[in-house]
Amino acid sequence: MRKSVKAMRKSIFSFAINATMTICMSAIIGIGFLIKYTLISGQERGEVYGRNVELYLLGLDRHQWGMLHLILAFVLLALLIVHIVFHWQVIANVYKKIIKEPVTKKVVALLFIILCVLMIVIPFFIHPEIESIKKGMGRQVTLVTQFR
Fold first, then answer.
1. What is the DSSP string of 75-126?
2. In the chain, what are the domain boundaries?
3. Which residues lie below 8 Å from residue 125, measured CB to CB, with a gap of 6+?
């Protein structure tokens, strides 16, 4: 009887983590769309509204929604870590079944870890290209970045 109660609690905890992660991810996606398509940037506001206006939703501007977007991303990251720890045995067992060769297992795991770490730390080493704003030109959007 105790095992079934423990298994039920584990299932409820797992469901709660997964449901919370799904809600977080949905909110992150929705806020991203909100920032991109509704609370548009200054240059776009001038084009859409004929003048530079401030846009708010529920009393928050696009930068405040951006901060909420970031906070939710950190919450999702924490939940993801809990999810991985909670399911580590399942992850390890599936990995062992998928990749049988020990050397290949180590290489794939190392490449996966390196890729994940690089994706997390590279933004801290990228610096945008800096250009002065020319009078009458407004902001000029560029996607050029450089490594320092």
1. HHHHHHHHHHHHTHHHHHHHHHHH---HHHHHHHHHHHHHHHHHHHHGGGTE
2. 1-97, 99-148
3. 147, 148
Spatial distance between the Cα atoms of 92 and 144, rounded to a whole number of angstroms = 40
Judge contact between 39 and 61, C-beta under 8 A. Answer: yes
**Residue 79 neighbours by CB distance under 10 Å:** 19
CB 139 within 8 A of CB 133: yes
Contact 133, 140 (CB under 8 A): yes
Under DSSP, the state recorded for 124 is: G
Rounded Cα distance between 79 and 142, Å, is: 34
Quote the pLDDT of residue 52. Answer: 81
* Structure confidence at residue 135 (pLDDT): 67
Residue type (1 letter), 108: V
pTM: 0.75
Comparing 47 with 65, the larger pLDDT belongs to 65
